[in-house]
Write a structure and sequence with these properties.
Helix content is 40%, strand content 24%. By secondary structure, it is of the alpha/beta class. The chain is globular.
Length: 280
C-alpha cells in the first residue's frame, strides 16, 4: 500500500490499528481523508493508553505536503514521530496560488465552525470560482454545506473531530476536484439515532440520516443538515460517502468510483465523511 485515501482506508485500518508502529515510509500519496484517518487511529489508540511510533514517508514531497496541511501539529498529540527519514521545518508557508482551502483543523465547539467557515470563505472565492467555475450562489451553498457537516460533529458525535479541504487536478477526467474530509471517533450514527429509531444496522442508520434527514432530536427542523448537504452535492454532480461503525453509504456520480453500499467493514467508531465536488 503506497497511498492512504478513502479507497485504501480499510487496508489502512487492517495494517495499522493493531500494529505496534505505523510505517509510512513507502507512502507516495495521501489526501485529507487519509490524514484524518491516521489522526483518528492515533486518537483511538490514545484512549486505550497506547502511543504508537510513526515512521514518516521517505518522500520529501509527501512530507512537505503533510507539513503544509498541518498534519504534524496534530499527529504529535497521538504519536511518537520518527523523523529520521523526513525532515520538517515546522514552518507553514502559504502561496497565494495554494490549492489548500483548509489545513487540518479541529472541531471541538461551535466557535470553531465559525472560524472554519470564515477561513474557507476567504479562500473559496479564488479556488472555487477560478478552478471549479462556481458562481457566488454555489459558493455560498458550499459554505452552508460545510458548516452543516461540521455542525453534525458538535451536535451528534459527543466528541471532537477534524476537517481538511484540498483542491486536486484529476487527470483521468481532465477536471479540478475539491476534496472535503470530516471525521470524528464519537458515538457514530447508529448510537446517535437509536434513541428514536429502530435500526437494523449501521448502514440503516446512515441511510436514515443521509437520505431521509433523520435526527436524534425531536425538534422540528432538526436533522435536515446532512440531507441538505446531499442535495447540494447531487446538484453539482459530486460524490459524498459516509462511513460509520461497520458500514459505508455513498452517493456516486457517473465520473466517480466506489460502491453505493458496503457492510461488514472493520469496526471503527464515529463517522468518516468524504465529499468530492467537481469542476463545472
Amino acid at each position: 500500500m503506497n497511498q492512504i485515501t478513502e479507497e485504501t482506508f480499510e487496508k489502512t485500518l487492517q495494517s495499522f490499528i493493531r500494529s505496534e508502529q505505523i510505517d509510512l515510509r513507502d507512502i507516495s500519496f495521501i489526501d485529507p481523508y487519509g490524514m484524518l484517518g491516521l489522526l483518528e487511529i492515533g486518537e483511538l489508540c490514545m484512549l486505550e493508553d497506547v502511543k504508537k511510533t510513526v515512521l514518516l514517508p521517505l518522500s520529501n514531497e509527501v512530507c512537505a505536503y503533510l507539513e503544509r496541511m498541518d498534519f504534524f501539529t496534530h499527529a504529535r498529540r497521538y504519536f511518537s514521530l520518527d523523523q529520521s527519514t523526513c525532515q520538517t521545518t515546522n514552518q507553514k508557508s502559504r502561496s497565494p496560488e495554494s490549492d489548500v482551502l483548509l489545513e487540518i483543523t479541529p472541531i471541538e465547539r461551535s466557535n470553531d465552525i465559525h472560524a472554519i467557515v470564515g477561513t474557507v470563505r476567504d479562500r473559496a472565492q479564488a479556488i472555487l470560482a477560478t478552478h471549479l467555475h462556481y458562481d457566488d450562489r454555489a459558493i455560498n451553498s458550499f459554505i452552508v454545506a460545510l458548516s452543516e457537516v461540521c455542525q453534525n460533529i458538535i451536535e451528534h458525535s459527543e466528541n471532537k473531530g477534524f476537517v481538511g479541504i484540498q483542491k486536486y487536478r484529476f487527470q483521468s477526467m481532465n477536471k479540478n476536484v475539491v476534496k472535503i474530509a470530516v471525521m470524528d471517533i464519537g458515538i457514530g450514527f447508529r448510537k446517535s439515532l437509536s434513541g428514536r429509531f429502530k435500526l437494523r444496522s449501521d448502514l440503516d442508520a446512515i441511510d436514515k440520516a443521509l437520505l431521509h434527514g433523520a435526527s436524534r432530536y425531536e425538534d422540528e427542523g432538526r436533522g435536515h443538515g446532512l440531507a441538505a448537504v446531499r442535495r447540494f452535492v447531487e446538484q453539482w454532480q459530486g460524490k459524498i460517502s459516509i462511513r460509520s461503525g461497520t458500514a459505508r453509504l455513498s452517493i456516486i456520480p457517473a465520473w466517480a468510483r466506489g460502491k453505493a453500499k458496503e457492510s461488514n467493514l472493520i469496526a471503527f467508531p464515529g463517522s468518516q465523511i468524504n465529499i468530492l465536488l467537481p469542476e463545472v
